[in-house]
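Bumping my old thread because nobody answered last time. Still need a sequence for this structure:
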């Protein structure tokens, strides 16, 4: 177990003797290997490369400009900027000042954005110039200053300085200000959950949390890449931070297919770190262009379930890569991981295999029925909690505790529904159903709130979906229950007649003694907007509500 506490008793104010600021690590990297590439991305004209020394200079300049605009320690700064190098520089600049960076998912509906703004209460907004509406609404939410981000290719200083001088009349002070001294518990980053089952819940990560999480990810994820460092292509800002903290090179993938293909071929990334949807897109792009890349040694996938067919597609174009699936959540990353060497396949067993939980996590499976519709705080003794925990082989809700598991949400909103207090230990309810076998390996069987009750049996949807997807004519499916009817919604491939596929499925489920009342062909299943990997069962039920 990891014994170092993240949320400790360190001061929440700037000026403590220690300094857990992530920027300290990057500053050391800039001195140790100044010319090593830190971030590679695509600009409007060509590929851009920023070394660790250049990134350090850019972060320092951005911090100076934000400071000139009035940003002070603990101020909340909302960053509404596309994923590119400047976003990471601005994020680190906020850390450098001891302020708090705020991310709000651009895919959120207006009511969810409103909810997040009222919870986080940002004072400053750094906004892409193309998004005018949010800037116009900023005063309604108490945002004191809007800074326009202009997106040129010639650096952060030109991007922000003209705007600041014009708006404030300030002359930026020296760009060599020191890094704010912060304790491990000093808040650094505010993000929100996906909100797929309700309003998003706010998560505050401290500086100590970010540093420890980066170290844990580096320690946890296996690597087949020789040498001291690797080049990592990733779409996830949190993993860009952990990549930089490890001294590795982060490649931000281009949105344009031709530019992305150029990155894959000529930048030769050692590792892909992405969601299943992104891996599928990259695999399809390489396959369409008849390209196989032996340079990719590691593929790490998180944010959604990885099915056997996706692994097969990846293997065809990345034959030398080891695939590692990472199971976690916004509140706890990582929880489990499992690796597949070239030639090895995913073997499902009443659920998707997640591997064993990492040493820093205490993972339990509890009887989900005991906390169904529970709205008040759950406070248990150790004996009461142990009585709720299920033995090997029994399906229930996966709950986790550990130093890198978020203990509380912003404003405590959502704690009662997702946290269990057990005599000084906080367990997070993942909302995922699963079990562990006699060897301690964890299997995912679906979402707890998507459980289906048939003839006295509780069936979690992934169990049925995996059985159906063994039929190679099914791209994806979802198992739901509406008005007592068990329905299987299917995304069918165009390779065989629909009646033939349904006849085969009927036989499979009759043998398994699972009664399916309706098979429904559907063009596309609703998935989460963030990673486009998880089925949103609540939306699917609404879409199928007319079916009797």
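Sorry it took so long. Here it is:
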């Amino acid at each position: 177990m990891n014994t170092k506490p993240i949320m400790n008793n360190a001061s929440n104010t700037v000026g403590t003797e220690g300094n857990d600021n992530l920027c300290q690590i990057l500053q050391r990297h800039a001195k140790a290997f100044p010319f090593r590439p830190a971030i590679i991305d695509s600009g409007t004209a060509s590929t851009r490369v920023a070394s660790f020394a250049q990134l350090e200079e850019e972060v320092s300049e951005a911090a100076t400009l934000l400071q000139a605009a009035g940003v002070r320690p603990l101020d909340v700064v909302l960053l509404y900027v596309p994923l590119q190098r400047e976003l990471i520089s601005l994020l680190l600049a906020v850390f450098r000042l001891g302020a708090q960076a705020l991310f709000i998912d651009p895919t959120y509906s207006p009511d969810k954005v409103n909810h997040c703004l009222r919870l986080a209460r940002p004072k400053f907004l750094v906004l892409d110039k193309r998004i005018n509406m949010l800037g116009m609404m900023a005063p309604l939410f108490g945002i004191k200053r809007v800074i326009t981000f202009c997106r040129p290719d010639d650096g952060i200083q030109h991007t922000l300085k003209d705007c600041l001088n014009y708006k404030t009349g300030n002359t930026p002070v020296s760009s060599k200000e020191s890094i704010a001294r912060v304790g491990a518990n000093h808040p650094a980053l505010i993000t929100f959950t996906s909100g797929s089952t309700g309003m998003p819940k706010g998560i505050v990560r401290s500086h100590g949390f970010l540093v420890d999480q980066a170290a844990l990810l580096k320690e946890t994820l296996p690597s087949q890449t020789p040498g001291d460092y690797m080049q990592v292509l990733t779409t996830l800002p949190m993993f860009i931070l952990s990549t930089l903290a490890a001294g590795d090179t982060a490649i931000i993938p281009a949105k344009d297919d031709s530019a992305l293909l150029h990155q894959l071929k000529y930048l030769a990334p050692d590792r892909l770190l992405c969601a299943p949807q992104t891996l599928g897109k990259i695999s399809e792009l390489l396959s369409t262009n008849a390209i196989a890349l032996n340079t990719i040694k590691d593929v790490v996938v998180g944010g959604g379930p990885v099915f056997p067919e996706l692994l097969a597609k990846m293997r065809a174009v990345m034959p030398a890569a080891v695939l590692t699936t990472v199971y976690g959540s916004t509140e706890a990353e990582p929880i489990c991981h499992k690796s597949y060497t070239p030639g090895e396949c995913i073997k499902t067993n009443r659920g998707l295999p997640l591997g064993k939980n990492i040493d820093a996590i205490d993972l339990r499976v509890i009887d989900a029925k005991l906390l169904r519709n529970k709205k008040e705080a759950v406070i248990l003794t150790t004996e009461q909690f142990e009585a709720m925990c299920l033995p090997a082989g029994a399906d229930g809700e996966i709950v986790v505790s550990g130093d890198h598991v978020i203990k509380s949400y912003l404003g405590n909103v959502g704690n009662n529904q997702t946290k269990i207090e057990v005599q000084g230990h906080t367990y997070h309810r993942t909302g995922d159903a699963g079990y562990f076998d006699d060897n301690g390996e964890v299997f995912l069987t679906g979402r707890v709130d998507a459980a289906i009750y048939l003839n006295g049996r509780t069936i979690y949807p992934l169990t049925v979906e995996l059985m159906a997807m063994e039929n190679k004519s099914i791209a994806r499916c979802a198992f739901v229950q509406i008005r007592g009817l068990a329905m299987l919604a299917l995304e069918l491939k165009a390779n065989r007649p629909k009646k033939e596929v349904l006849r085969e499925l009927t036989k499979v489920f009759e043998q398994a003694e699972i009664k399916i009342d309706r098979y429904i062909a559907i063009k596309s299943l609703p998935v989460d907007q963030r990673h486009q990997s998880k089925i949103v069962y609540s939306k699917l039920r609404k879409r199928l509500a007319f079916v009797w």
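Residues 52-68 form the longest helix (17 residues). Let me know if any region looks off to you.
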